[in-house]
Amino acid sequence: MLTDLLIKNIKCLVQTEELPRLRICGSEMSGISSVNDAYLYINDGLIAEFGKMTDLQNNKKLIQDPKVKTIDAGERFVFPSFCDSHTHLVYSGSREIEYTDKIRGLSYGEIAKRGGGILNSSKRLHETSEDELFLQSVARINEIISLGTGAVEIKSGYGLNLADELKMLRVIRRIKATCPIEVKATFLGAHAIPEEYKNRREKYVDLVINEMIPVVASEELADFIDVFCDKGFFTVEDTERILMAGIKYGLTAKLHANELDYSGGIQTGVKYNALSVDHLEFTGEEEINSLLGSETMPTLLPGSAFFLGMADPPVRKMINAGLPVALASDYNPGSSPSGNMKLIMSLGCIKLKMLPEEVINAVTINSAYAMGISETHGSIAKGKVANVFITKKIPSYEFMPYAFGSNLIDTVILRGNVINTK
Ligand code: NIG
Ligand code: FE
Questions:
Q1: What is the Cα–Cα distance from 117 to 8, expressed in whole angstroms?
Q2: Mutate to test the pocket of ligand 1, among 111, 118, 263 (most ligand atoms within 8 A of CB)
Q3: Which residues make Cβ contacts (< 8 Å) with residue 7, sequence separation at least 6?
Q4: Closest-lying ligand to the alpha carbon of 230?
Q5: From the CA of 410, how far away is ligand 2's center (Å)?
Q6: 418 vs 81: CA distance, rounded Å
Q7: H-helix segments, 26-79
Q8: Which atom of ligand 1 is the closest one to the Cα of 112?
Q9: CB 61 within 8 A of CB 33
Q10: How far is the CA of 381 from the centre of ligand 1 (A)?
Q11: What SS3 class is residue 297?
Q12: Ligand index nearest the alpha carbon of residue 84
């Protein structure tokens, strides 16, 4: 249902744009535009107008129109909803046993070698019906909506055979059709090498290319194609073959790159004009130089580096070199069992030494870019989709990443509708 909605008495309307940009790079990331003592007018699910309360007082038409529903923000802040450009939130069950193994000292790689990790989730997913998988996934979607996320990218990659990859992608399609959040789907058939292909990796790559991609494309189940291009998973050569096949079918590349080593994944992503390359814990001069001048968004996932106790990517070097940076949650059962983007902002500040303004840009406009929707999402600009949230009472926008354990999201509005998040 589309309604007219006026939010008045906003203490601060954050991340406003008069001339919308597609992404924000380098030193510009430390700037945020905002309007104090503001109003926001939403019409037919889109942002129609915003400005100072003093200007609203002269707009009798808007204040007196009985069709316009009014919310008094009562001195609270309004932000554009978070865009989470990298998740694996369609999965079955959970992996807290491996979490305990990790506490006892096993590495992510060692757990994967023992048949844990992605293969463990793959086994569970195989045993779970599509309806049950949908129910488990929708619960996670409702959770992230209540935490302020208004757009999410979701990957397949726990199927690892045609039927189960399609099962995952159909669940993502059902979420797209039934939930108020914006959804983009990514085919990640090359997430891990299944047990039966253990010593025949090339044969599994052939299967992805010859049997999976054509069906995924013909059923229009994915927007993007991803490969885990890293040590112990898929090589640059495998990645190139898969990306070429996907691109032929109209799928845009997004890559898991350089999480476990200098894998060549970043350069490969740039070569194939990937929308984003993600993780990037192993990033040096060469990788930064390859990203400069490209259209590819470097995307960092501090939740997984934090959860796995891994080294952090050199984000200051990246921003100082003039690169844009996006942050995403990587919500998944193995390396980041959380889709809380406000916590991701805090990790960006605390672990990556990003400024509050930089993390706000990284979880809104730049992460919108990393999922191909920054023309319509990721900032408060006329004509953009009205996905916003009203905070609880806070003293400043810096308080959002600062108060790292508090839920400060009060009211969620998606496509102009107030969402019941209780
Ligand atoms: O992005 N790195 C690869 N894939 C996921 C982890 C998935 C899992 O462990 O289930 C990630 O961290
Ligand atoms: Fe991931």
A1: 48
A2: 118
A3: 39, 40, 41, 42, 70, 71, 73, 78, 388, 390, 413
A4: 1
A5: 29
A6: 13
A7: 53-56, 60-64
A8: 9
A9: no
A10: 34
A11: strand
A12: 2
Give the Cα separation of 280 and 258 in Å (integer). 5
pLDDT in tens, the chain (422 residues): 557 999 999 999 999 999 999 999 999 999 999 999 999 999 999 999 999 999 998 888 888 888 999 999 998 999 999 999 999 999 999 999 999 999 999 987 888 877 789 999 999 999 999 999 999 999 999 999 999 999 999 999 999 999 999 999 999 999 999 999 999 999 999 999 999 999 999 999 999 999 999 999 999 999 999 999 999 999 999 999 999 999 999 999 999 999 999 999 999 999 999 999 999 999 999 999 999 999 999 999 999 999 988 899 999 999 999 999 999 999 999 999 999 999 999 999 999 999 999 999 999 999 999 999 999 999 999 999 999 999 999 999 999 999 999 999 999 999 999 999 98
Q: Which ligand is nearest to the CA of 87?
A: 2
Distance between CA 225 and CA 203 in Å, rounded?
A: 19
Residue with structure tokens 């406003």? 16
Atom of ligand 1 nearest to the CA of 117: 9
Identify the residue whose tokens are 């008094």.
72
| Tokens coding 278 | 């993600």
Cα of 148 vs centre of ligand 1, distance in Å, is: 23
Closest Cα to atom 12, ligand 1: which residue?
Answer: 335
Ligand 1 site: residues with CB under 6 angstroms? 88, 117-118, 121, 228, 256, 259, 304, 330, 332-335
Helical packing angle, 356-363 and 341-350, nearest 10°: 140
Residue 400 corresponds to which tokens in the numbers above? Answer: 């959002």
Q: Which atom of ligand 1 is nearest to the CA of 86?
A: 1
